[in-house]
Design goal:
Blueprint (H helix, E strand, L loop, with lengths): L3 H18 L6 H8 L3 H13 L4 E3 L5 E3 L10 H9 L2 H4 L17 H17 L2 H10 L8 H6 L4 H8 L1
Antiparallel strand pairs: 1-2
């Protein structure tokens, strides 16, 4: 539903929020590694979030990214989505048609209208303080652990027995 840019931006903002709660400023490299995003792509996303005033950036050897703690409860998922993708996700067609409206609906228009409304409401409710708390407590995560497991399976016989 979200663009790749938006997915990575949300992950990055939640990660930065969690580290900010611990009093830590984090590097671009660390963010990229933790969210599973290419470094250059992450840099562009963070630049956009910084320009939007959602993330603070500091240059230099002790630099990095952070979000003031007092802003964490004020920055919503909607703010991040709006900064990176605009409002298209709340208005676009579920099938990606250029022309889809009440007068000219696609086959899933009525159903998707409800999904968009729920998504918009959730995005306005969910703030970075709430989203990062689960991360800090270990209840939520930002990238799948599966790729690490796959790295250990180098023997083709073992791999074949798992996939059969």
């Amino acid at each position: 539903m979200f663009s790749k840019k938006c997915e990575y931006g949300i992950r990055a903002a939640i990660l930065i929020a969690g580290e900010s709660l611990k009093g830590q400023r984090i590097s671009l490299k660390y963010i990229s590694e933790q969210i599973g995003s290419p470094n250059a792509f992450t840099a562009k996303i963070l630049q956009t979030l910084t320009r939007a005033g959602l993330v603070d950036s500091q240059k230099g050897p002790t630099g990095g990214f952070e979000i003031p703690i007092e802003k964490l409860s004020q920055i919503t998922l909607h703010d991040i989505v709006e900064a990176l993708d605009g409002s298209q996700i709340y208005n676009g067609c579920g099938l990606g048609l250029a022309e889809c409206s009440e007068d000219h609906p696609c086959p899933i228009h009525e159903h998707f209208k409800l999904v968009r409304a729920d998504l918009k409401a959730m995005a306005h409710r969910a703030n970075l303080l709430d989203l990062s708390t689960g991360l800090i407590k270990g209840f939520t995560y930002l990238k799948t652990a599966c790729p690490k497991k796959i790295k250990f399976i180098k023997d083709k016989k073992v791999l074949n027995s798992i996939t059969e």
